[in-house]
Amino acid sequence: MSEPRIKAGIWVSAALRLGMSDGKPGLVIHKGDADAGGVLVCLRGRTGVMVLSQFRDAGGQMAWMRGTGPVPVSDEAADAYIARQRKYDSDLWVIEFDAPDYLPPFEGQIV
Fold first, then answer.
1. I need a surface site. Which of 11, 49, 70, 108 has the fewest CB within 10 A?
2. Distances, alpha carbon 39 to alpha carbons 46, 47, 87, 88, in Å
3. Strand 26-30's sheet: what is its strand order?
4. DSSP letter string over the chain?
5. How far is 27 from 68, CA to CA, in rounded Å?
6. DSSP string spanning 12-33?
7. CA–CA distance from 19 to each of 24, 44, 60, 98, 110 (Å)?
8. What are the backbone angles phi and psi of residue 17, rounded to the nearest 5°?
9. What is the distance between the alpha carbons of residues 26 and 42, in angstroms, rounded to a whole number?
10. Is 13 in contact with 6 (CB distance < 8 Å)?
11. What is the pLDDT at residue 57?
12. Which phi and psi angles does 30 have, rounded to 5°?
């Protein structure tokens, strides 16, 4: 059985609050559908940006994929990835955190 689904707008608000309390301030880059939008998380560090893409694993649990690869990329590469994803999903949220360690301020499996 999968975990209950939280509305995207509520999840984003909670993630931003966790970021503030963890010393990783964040902001909304693009507002998606408040009820059912997916989420991309940009982690801005010293050497570039990593973009995490939200998905559900085979068991229905929320997990994160390193959409831009295992190492930080340039702003241009991150922006191109985000633009491609937004073409497929206009309801997509994009949030960004200042995360020098490239770790999100919330718990989640990263694959």
1. 70
2. 23, 23, 14, 13
3. 26-30, 93-98, 39-44, 49-56, 62-66, 109-110
4. -PPPPPPHHHHHHHHHHHHHHTT--EEEEE---TTT--EEEEEE-SS-EEEEEEEE-TTS-EEEEETT-SS-B-HHHHHHHHHHHHHH-TT-EEEEEE-TT---SS--EE-
5. 20
6. HHHHHHHHHHTT--EEEEE---
7. 5, 13, 25, 9, 17
8. -65, -40
9. 9
10. no
11. 85
12. -145, 125
pLDDT of res. 2: 53
Span 58-69, pLDDT tens digits:
888 889 999 999
Place of tokens 């990835």: 81
The two tokens of residue 42 are 């940009």
- Smallest CA-to-CA distance from 85 within 49, 52, 36, 45 is with 52
- Rounded to two decimals, what is the model's pTM? 0.92
